[in-house]
Automatic annotation (TrEMBL):
Gene3D superfamilies: Immunoglobulins (2.60.40.10). InterPro entries: Ig-like_dom_sf, Ig-like_fold, Ig_I-set. This is Immunoglobulin I-set domain-containing protein. The keyword Phosphoprotein does not apply. It comes from the Eukaryota. The lineage of its organism: Eukaryota, Metazoa, Ecdysozoa, Nematoda, Chromadorea.
Amino acid sequence: MSVYQNDEHMPYSDRVTVSVSQEGMIYSFALIITESSIEDSGRITFVANNEFGMDKVAIDLLVEPSSIPVPTNDFVGDPAKVIIPLQNTIVKEGETARLRGRIAGFPLPDVIILRDGLEINLEFDDHIEFLQKPNGEIILNILDCSPFDDDEYTLLVENMAGIDSCEFEIFVVEEPFDMNESLDRRRQRRRMRKLKGGLQMDDDDEDLSERQMRKLRRLR
């Protein structure tokens, strides 16, 4: 994957880094720019390519002048860290998935939730309740769960001193609340997502489905 700013290649450095995680054939990534300045503003384009093709997406980044003094090199912070990760959760269709965790770091880290590699808008999504307390406790409630919510998620926390993450899954058991049938439907939805993306299911995906079944048995 390559990153461009205003159509010019953006080289990675100690200040500009990319964090990548993989789950099967799904890749999630985050572009991290520390000590950002107004010069970082512009159109940021992400280009992914392999032997089968190429795709890209662009966003507009605006860095506004800060009224807060910029930390000096003498500033010492505590890196963002996930102390208590969000746990895999089983919920019946129509119920609320309730997840709890704890993070630490100074300054208090910002929190990003990714679903299948895409960021969830925690502020404007009426389907989700999110609370971050000053002591680092985080509360995530997903209301009225449906098969759409049955997926893989990532909790990403970051501050100017560091970044950390954890992964968790939400299993939505559909009526008549048979977990075996729900897992089969989850496997079918996963296959459809891959086919729509031009990918094929492979042995790793089948192994992943078996691991999910074992995980469901442990969670019961």
